[in-house]
Specification:
Helix content is 58%, strand content 14%. It has 337 residues and is an alpha/beta fold. Strands 5-6-2-3-4-1-7 form a seven-stranded mixed sheet, with no helix packed on it.
């Protein structure tokens, strides 16, 4: 170096500076040494995405953002969409077959305060790979600025409402506080009464449960079952006896009608009157049977005096005890102690 002239030294220094400048331009400009292909991603709001931002797959950089084109919502005849911004991305050729047609392109960030980048979810490996020059729809990042603006607007409106209605709010809070104090005093004054009311309610509930259990035992008891079976057998026997009587009556009526043709007018009138009386008696018998069925139904439901007697086991036991006592001491019918 001591043998070099000053001109050579200056030239070498300028050359080294040019090399460094070219290196910086190459690195900062996002140029890649390998072969790449281009894709286009549409966004409505890409956030802080800048040209030269990295493009990653599973956290590994596979390309960079070339430039951002403002489309202004104009219709794209190729896609039928109206994007606001279209990003041109350059991706390494060696990962081309891993990015498929259903791949997702979304804006991510290297850190909370780091630069934005495009992250790719490759998609289904069974689907075909994206062709170079394809235009896909990207997923916009969350609009934190819009959320903060809306929250600020809401907070400002709430503050304005509180400031304009301060007196009414203070009055409402005072009224609520007075109401709470009055309720507390009322509960404190009637503490013993409330306890008694709750205790009475608990006892009433227990007594109701006991009554229901007793009624269930009476209704489902063996004596009630036997009584109902006896009533059913009685009704069945009555029905069995009535049916032959009705058949005999119909036969007699038919024979009577046949005999009417062989008698005189006066006798025919007498026979017809007798048939009508018999028909009325039959209707009355049917009505009596229906009343008997209704009475049995009332007895089963425990309604009326007989129903209460049959269904109430205590009354039945008292009557049975009284009859047993009269059987052994009949003089009690005529003499009272």
């Amino acid at each position: 170096m001591k043998g070099l002239s000053i001109e050579v030294r200056v030239g070498l220094l300028v050359l080294a500076a040019l090399v460094l400048l070219g290196g910086f331009i190459f690195i900062l400009g996002g140029y890649e040494l390998g072969k790449q292909y281009e894709l286009f991603v549409d966004f409505d709001n890409p956030g802080n995405l800048k040209p030269g931002a990295p493009v990653t797959v599973a956290g590994i950089q596979v390309g960079r953002v070339g430039d951002l084109e403002y489309r202004g919502g104009r219709l794209d005849e190729r896609t039928g969409r109206r994007p606001l911004v279209r990003a041109r991305v350059r991706i390494d050729e060696n990962v081309r077959d891993t990015i498929h047609e259903d791949a997702l392109f979304y804006i991510a960030s290297q850190s909370i305060l780091g630069e934005s980048m495009i992250s790719i979810s490759p998609g289904d490996p069974e689907r075909p790979a994206l062709e170079p020059g394809a235009i896909v729809q990207g997923i916009d990042p969350p609009r934190l600025d819009l959320a903060f603006a809306m929250a600020f607007e809401l907070l400002e409106g709430l503050t304005r409402t509180l400031r304009d209605n301060r007196e009414e709010l203070v009055g409402a809070l005072r009224s609520a506080a007075n109401l709470i104090r009055q309720l507390d005093a009322l509960l404190e004054q009637n503490d013993g009464r409330i306890d008694r009311m709750l205790a009475n309610l608990e006892r009433a509930t227990e007594q109701t449960n006991e009554v229901l259990e007793g009624a269930s035992g009476i209704v489902n008891g063996p004596r009630t079952e036997r009584t109902l079976r006896n009533v059913d057998r009685t009704l069945a026997a009555v029905a069995a006896d009535i049916e032959p009587l009705m058949r005999d009556f119909r036969s007699a009526a038919e024979r009577g009608n046949e005999a009417l043709g062989a008698v005189g007018p006066e006798q025919r009138q007498q026979i017809q009157d007798a048939i009508r009386r018999t028909a009325r008696l039959t209707e009355e018998a049917n009505a009596t049977l229906a009343d008997a069925r209704a009475i049995v139904g009332h007895i089963r439901q425990g309604r009326g005096t007989i129903g209460s007697f049959v269904m109430d086991e205590a009354i039945y036991d008292d009557v049975q005890e009284m009859l047993r006592d009269l059987k052994h001491n009949p003089w009690k019918l005529f003499w009272r102690e």
